[in-house]
Structures are given as structure tokens and as C-alpha cells.
Specification:
This protein is of the alpha+beta class. It has a domain at about 20-170: Orthogonal Bundle (Penicillin Amidohydrolase, domain 1). About 30% of the residues lie in helices and about 20% in strands. The protein contains 20 helices and 29 strands. Helix 2 packs across helix 5, helix 4 (about 110-115) crosses helix 6 (about 155-165) and helix 5 crosses helix 6 (about 155-165). The termini are far apart. The model is unreliable at about 190-235 (pLDDT under 50).
Length: about 750
Amino acid sequence: MAWLKRSALALVVVLVLAFVALASWEPYFAHQSEAPEYREFSAEIVRDEFGVPMIYGETDADVAYGVAIAHAEDDFSTLQDVAAMSRGRYGAIAGQDGATFDYVYHLLDARGTAMRKYYDLPEDTRALFEAYATGLNQFADEHPGEVKLANLFPLNGEDIAAGFVLRQPFFYGLGNVIGPLVAGDELRREFGPDIPGFPRDGSAPDASAPVDEAEPGGTAIHGLVLPWGEEADHLGSNAWAVSPERSGGPTTLISNSHQPLRGGVAWYELSVHSGEGWHFTGANFPGSPFPFLGHNENLGWTNTVNRPDMADIYQLEMNDDGTQYRLDGEWVDLESTTVTLPVKMGPITLPVRRTVLRSVHGPVIENDNGFFAVRYGGMDSVDQLDAYYRINKAQNLEEWQAQMARMAIPSTNFIYADREGNIAYVYNAAIPDRPELDEVQANWRGVLDGSRSDLIWEGTVDYAEIPKLINPASGWLYNSNNEPYTAAGEGSDLSPDDFSPVLGIERKQTNRSWRAYRLLSEVEGPLDLAALERIKYDTAYERRGYVADMYDQLEALDPGDDADLAEARDLMLTWDFTADNEGAADSLALLMIRDFMSAEYNNKNEGELPDVAEYLLDKRAHLMEHFGRIDPPMSELLRLRQGDVDLPLDGGSDTLRASTTWVVDDDGRLSLVHGDSFIQWVEWPRDGGRVFSRSIQPFGAATTRPDSEHYTDQMQLFVDHELKPVRFWEEDVRAAAQSTRTVTNAR
């Protein structure tokens, strides 16, 4: 028996050692960065009554250092998640879902791109990123108890750049290409006009479908789940610009971005002011030293997601053992790298080995149908880091357009306004400079012949080739994630006939777009504050697209002897096509709309659309279970929740007052997770006076600090359609200051 005891003891020792190894290996195996070379920084962080920081510094780099510390004070948790993504280590924090981001990090060669390209950026831009990394490192050193992952710090500018490389392509829908390829599914791609050899999924504007939303879900990647939904596909936005001639007063810019309310692509409001002329207020995403939208003294802009066809797929002809592919008649070695993905499971972290493939085209994905390479706009570039910085400091339309013309920012529409009364819309996209070959030779929206090097494009089209409108006769511009050919009203809009189909410009409309276009076009007088507020907070739907499909099915539905179905149908037939919390059918309609919207956003065919009877009964059952009635006030169903604060909301999925995506809480209420987020309303007075702006966030400045007074302090204002003042001018900042402190890394 002694040998048995010894064997059992040995087994226990082995298991303990294995547990210790699995619990501790990841930080030592992971990539380690060197801290930026020491440079002394100093910044002043002044917070207003809502905790929004204005960061002052002598140099732009000083300000970037202060931005990192101010943001960490409010949301260090999310900043660490983004830092882990930029190192390929998110799985060690978020488990299986995080490891999938890590797989994509390796697939897109985010680190390799940063290593190759970051040091080509101008010195002052790199100084900004090194300073930002220094601020994050300092906060981590001073708050070791908050650090989630050992050896995550120090960071440097290259790490921050890698995070940009990883996340940016998914704003224009790269996940909708990679996900199906990995799964071996049919691609559902959004296409432009019908031309021979260029198949299309969609039709003319009046019959097309929205593009900014998709149903949450996952795509399997070798046993992992790819959560493209919340981080990538659940992106939308509204934007408006109005000239002083049309407003009857100020030049007006309204920023109304729809982002997740929490997480790595949630807005963080801030203002910056340096002695080198950088003076800007707006919002950024975690991991950025500068705002992505907002305004300076003289100009401003906002963004909406666009979906040009910026990714091309090539099928490779492989040799028998899958190690080489044919290119112009020659066999070329397929690059193959084995990577280790950390997957946290309870107290241990499993090392999961995966193979990442690349060809000269780009990343390669193997599925049951073969080997497919993907080439996409903005690939192997970090120039956006410099371009965003430069447009922050642009002082007029000419300077701003000069930076936009670089085509360095891979995607997103830009709506612009300035103090001179100019308004502009730019369908910004680093669209591949594809050869306009005969459609028999190359179908850019299908699967391309990977053996032909003449199909491997380089660079982007010229700025002159993309749609843009400057100072339209209508005096107004808008975008609600729609095609660029409805932007300024009849007589001012661009024509699709003037743009090459090879550009792959989407021909899509959202219900928000139809509604905004109609409301703007119907205003006969000035588009003043009152008129614009009515439009921005409008909660109605147009009976078009998926809304019409749903209602047509309802009107044609015969419930037979099913009393429950008849009751639900009859209630829905009283719906007034609004989500304003007033109608008896609003709650049921809110639940129904989501499914039909998602079907069209995912380009489902007619036979794949939701069955109205099935969904009516399902939504009726939900309301009966949790409310005991099928007509509860929508305000009791749709909620804005954070901590102990629980408030009613209006608006629906794809209304201009956007309450787009929610989670169903245990009590059956819908808790908003995505929709109207950072809103900023900017005005340049017609008489040339100082710019003035107001803003709001759904929660508060300190989104992950429950003990902060700014965790929930904007919620009631947000629900009430109210805005707070933006403290931009120094005298206003100082007068409203609730706290002021200087931070430095001086040794």
C-alpha cells in the first residue's frame, strides 16, 4: 500500500504543479514592451461640475500625458482591456471571447504593422503617443491594486498604435467578411448598383435595407466565439450640419453618435488645451490620446459609420500539402505562424495554440471550401494616428480638407461645420484603388482569382474620386448611416451615376435616414434650434423597408381561432409608428421591430424573414410573464440603468432618438446597452462670436467608478432630452472648476 500512497502523493504534486503553471504562465510568456524613453511631462487636470476634464499643458505631449491620467481616473478598467487587446492578451482577462480578439490581432498582424510603420510617423505625433503611454504607465504604478493583468505595463507608443490597427477595420464591416469566411458560410455583402458581372445584395434606395446594425451573435473560430456584434456591427449614428443662411442664426453642427454605452468603443468626453495651439473639445475611445470628434475654436466635425466595399477576397490555388500557393504560374510559400492564445477559465489560463496564415494578398483563412486571402482598405498603415492629430489642429476648411485628402483615416463619414459658415459632407473611405478590369476578368464583389498578381491592388483611390458635398444650396446636410446620395435634399444631392461602381459605395438606407430626409425637407422656414431639436429627438418610423414588411404581414395575418394571437395582432394594428411612450402598442412594437430590423440588416432573403405570427406570440408571452398585460407603458419596459439609478427611456431601434440595443434583465425590462451615446450640439454665432457647445452622456464621466458622484449624474438629463454646457473657454473652465490638480512624472 505504501507504493499506492506514494503514487497518489506524486499525482497530487503533479496536479498542483500543473495548476500553478496554468495559473501563472501567461504573464511571463507574453510580449513585453519597453517603457518610453524618459521625458518629463506636466499637465493640469481641471474638472467641471460634471467631472468632465479639461487638460492643460505647455506642449501637446504634456496634454496627451494628462489625457491618459484623467481617463484612467475615470475608467482604468476599460483602458486595461484595450491595452490587453493591443498586446494579444485580452483572453487572459475576458476568457473565450477575449481570446477571439487575440486571434484577430494575430490574423491582421496588428503588432507587425505597428512595428513596421509606427516609427515612420512624424516625431511630434510619436511624442503624443509616447506621452500617452507614459501617463497610463504612471497610473498603473501608482494604483497597483487596480491592475488586472501582470506585466501588462509598461506600454509604449507602439502598443497604442497596435490597438488602432486592430480595431479600425471593423468599423466598416471587416468582421462581416472574416466571420463568414472562418465559418465557411455564404458571404452576405452589401453592394452597389446592378452592372454586368457585379452581383448585388440590395436594390435602389427606396427598397434597400439599413446597414449599421446586426444581431448580436458569434462566429466559431476553431472552437472560439467571435463576438463581432457589440464591438463592430452595432455601430450607427446621426449627424447634422446647418448653414447660418438656413438656420437664420448660427452655423450648427449636431453630433449624435450611436455607440455601446460601455466598453472599448464607448465615448469618453474630454477637452484639451496646450501652449502649442491644440485646443479641442469632444470625445475619444479608450486608448486614444486625442478626440475623434468634436470642435476647436474655428471648426468641428462628427462621424457616422459608412460601409463601402473595402475588402476583397481571393481564393488561393494551393499545392497538395497546403504549404504553397500559385501566383502568376509560380509556387510561393504560404507564411505560417503558430501563436498562443491565452484563454482564462476560472482561476487558470489555458494556452491555446492556433496557426495564422498570410499570403502576399493579406491574411489567409482556411475553411472547408479552401484557402481564402483577404485584402482590405487601410491595411498595413498607421497613418490615421497622424491624420486625426492634424485635423484636431486644423483651423479652416482648406487645412481640414488637406488632411482628409490623405485618405489616411480608413473609414467613416465626416459631417463638418465652421465659424465661416461652411458645411461639408465627406464620404471618407480608404477605398482600394482597384483596376477597372472587364467584369469577366475580375468581379471585385465576388471571390477573386488569387493566382493573378494584377488583381492585387496597391493604395487607395484619390480624394477627388469619393463623394463629397460642400455648402449645398439647401443649407443642410445629414447622415444616418445611409448612402451618400441622400444627404442634402432634392436639387442638392449627389448622383450615383457620377461615381464608379468599382468604388463599392453602399446603396442603403436606414429608417432613420428616410425619416430625417423627410423631416428636413418639409421644414419651410429656418432650421433653427426648435426645428432641429424636434428632428433629433423624433421617435417615429417611416412605413418603408422592414417596417412596411412587418406591418404588411400583420395586416394580412389571419389568427384563426388563436385568441392570444388575435389580441396581439389587433393591438399592433393600432400602433401609430412611434416609440414615444404614449401608445398602448409601443411596447409590443418595440420588441417586434428589433427582429425585422435585424433580418434586413443581416441581408436575409424573403424566406428568412421573421414569421410575424411566431414573433407576435413570443413577444406577447414576454410581456404577459413580466407585466401581466400586453400593453404596458413602454417607459416601464425600456430602461436606462446604471448602479442604483433606473430611468424610463423613449425611442426605438432605428429611430432618430435611438434606443437601439438592449439586454433583457431578470425582471424582463430592457436595459439599454447601445444607442444615443455622446451627443454634442455646436454653434458658431453668425456675428462671428465665440463658439458655444452643449453635450450629454447617458451615464456620467466616471463610467466604471460606482463610488464617484459622476457615475450616474448625467442620466436624468439624458432621459429628459437635455444638454449640459461644454466648458471650452478658459474663463468658463476656471469658473466651473470643481477640482484642479497638476500631475507630473518628474523624478
